[in-house]
Amino acid sequence: MPQRPMRRRTKLSDVIVEEMKRLIVAECLKPGDRVPSEPELIETYGCSKGTVREALKALEVEGLVVMRTGPGGGAYLADAGPEPAARMLRNFLHFQHLDGEGVYQIRKIVEPEVAAAAVGRLSEAQFAQLEDNVVICSQAPTSEEEQRRQRILELEFHNTLADACPNPLLAFIGRFLNDMLRDLVVLKRAYVPERHRFGECNVDYHRLLLEAYRQNDAARVRAIMLAHMHDAERHMTALEGEVANSFLLGFPRP
Amino acid sequence: MPQRPMRRRTKLSDVIVEEMKRLIVAECLKPGDRVPSEPELIETYGCSKGTVREALKALEVEGLVVMRTGPGGGAYLADAGPEPAARMLRNFLHFQHLDGEGVYQIRKIVEPEVAAAAVGRLSEAQFAQLEDNVVICSQAPTSEEEQRRQRILELEFHNTLADACPNPLLAFIGRFLNDMLRDLVVLKRAYVPERHRFGECNVDYHRLLLEAYRQNDAARVRAIMLAHMHDAERHMTALEGEVANSFLLGFPRP
DNA sequence: CTATGCTATTTATCCGGATAAATACCCCAC
DNA sequence: GTGGGGTATTTATCCGGATAAATAGCATAG
After folding, report:
1. Residue A175's closest CA among A104, A241, A114?
2. Given this model, what pLDDT does residue A60 score?
3. pLDDT of residue A3
4. Which sign does the torsion angle of CA A49, B90, B116, B155 carry?
5. What mean pLDDT comes out for the span A59-72?
6. Which of A63, A109, A251 sits opposite B21 (nearest CB)?
7. Domain A83-247 - what CATH class?
8. Which residue ranges make up each domain of chain A?
9. Which fold has domain B12-77?
């Protein structure tokens, strides 16, 4: 049976991928809109399902479509979330040299901006979330493990602020940095119990921030966050340094 | 012939991908190192070549390996470049609202940091590159098209600084922002000729920066770049605003 | 000694088939 | 009318085969 492989200049599935992207842009498709599915594409391009599947798979790993099974199923345009980008960014950084100092070099300039941008944009639910976070993180930890969890929870405070930041790229960067620090906290087992005051120190800043948010005082929010970052950087360099690259490679996140 | 499809909880090819990633981390493999290739993986996992190929393909689109054909060919660990991450980030931003103001909100804080970080780290070649850039961009453009090219070339000045920035994540962010602005410049056809003084204005800042770099004056570099960004932001908001999303979706870049 | 062409190895691309799972929808019993 | 189960549709996963292309290394001719 004459199969027709003959190596093309560009893979047929790649052609399909690009055509689909053009279609998405040209038709101004919105998330949730339906995209031509397997049988339709097979007919359109006169190729086998394997080839079409490869194209759809590629679009799926890029986060552009989601596949649904069952009747009425098929490929639907997805609101590409930040996860694929974050995973690729971790892959990229795996072979680069990035230490805690490097993370804080960026965090010192990004977090104050994120925090200030969130002023006046916090919903009631987000306000409640921040307050809950402060309450939980104020409790003295009873074990080293609980202390570590608390440190991770503190980062959620910053993630909530990023959620309220209207600039999507700025919010992405903020969340990514928090993610990196989260890995760092998870990794540092040599975390001496007496140092739990660091956590209390962080919560103190969070309390001050909450107060400034209640007064919609952007300038003060920015100033507090900057001081917070400088303080946190001192603590982190005191703790030591290297962000473990093994945690950067794009594994599924717990 | 009994094929054994039965839908797994997790795809076999994904299992292979994750095992390979673990291998890369565990063995501390460096770019250029060889990775188990098709026939070896087929034997190891007892699956068909299609499945193995799917796994290797996934690693390839993540930029982690490159495939080579011919004798001695196979999968080799690649130094994951920034392109896949940048492409995914553009995909993510395609469905978000990001205007020129949003880009400059970040650029105003990132570029001064990048510029300051590059102080004392510029190679001879990079110095020459910056000087050449200033010379070329100082010439009065003779056509609107040439003027646009000049504006794009001006962004290369900033990319060179990013190249000299030792913080890989900071450099990535800087280059990404420049890329976005590049798209914006390419897109803006309604660019009035009389406004070519904007370009001259940019070059003036670049000249000042070059001088400060010669003196290794980080504080001054930072201050000049900040002023440069504020000025550029004013010009860009005057020009109008929205970054065209159609240029963000991850197409191959020219 | 060199250049050229042959060969063997390995991946590249595509095909179509088979079973498994998910799910919207309909039909029937109650 | 309503709930539950069956059914049809669609994708999910995997298989193995076939031809095409790239390339390193060898062999041979000049």
Report:
1. A114
2. 87
3. 58
4. positive
5. 88
6. A251
7. mainly alpha
8. 12-77, 83-247
9. Arc Repressor Mutant, subunit A (1.10.10)
